[in-house]
Amino acid sequence: MTRDDLARWDDRYRREDWKNARDPYPLLAEHVPPIADGFALDLACGLGHNSIWLARHGYHVLGVDLSRVALEKARKAASAAGMAERVRFAQVDLDHYRPPAGCFDLVAVIRFLDRALFPYIAASLKPGGLLIYATLNWRRRETHPEVEPVYLLQPGELKTSFPGFELLHASEVGDHSEIVARKPRNPAINT
Length: 191
Description:
The chain is an alpha/beta fold. It has six helices and seven strands, in the order H-H-E-H-E-H-E-E-H-E-H-E-E. It has a single domain (3-10, 23-182), classed as Rossmann fold (3-Layer(aba) Sandwich), CATH 3.40.50. A seven-stranded mixed beta sheet has the order 3-2-1-4-5-7-6.
């Protein structure tokens, strides 16, 4: 990411109030089972509301984002929610970040798209791990023509982007595409 990208995201998050209660992205609430002691990655976590929700449901969470401002607010929110021990936030350049392989029971990616990360996301999940992915698609340009097409999914793209995964849910509603998919439990299957 460039310094301009960092400044733009920091400025955006300076204007958002972390004290406002934020519900998790609905797909998480619908599809994520509580777990006793699992590990989750919240990629491009922003203000951390999904990370905190996952922590409340039994996960130890690594939330990563570019914005230092967002992460400071996320840390404060996690502390206020009593989840500081279960959530760790890290500032990373998402253009270069590669999550560690085979570490996570769950990976959540909400409103972020970098196709180059798809194989690393797949590899970061343990066998049987759950992927929750939701982001903007090509219809976004109908109302926001300034959005660069590289940041938008094509029709049907997301549900074919993780070959070998069991697709549990897929939808394209309005300008959002989303999937819930499980990594095969059989490690012999190449993902």
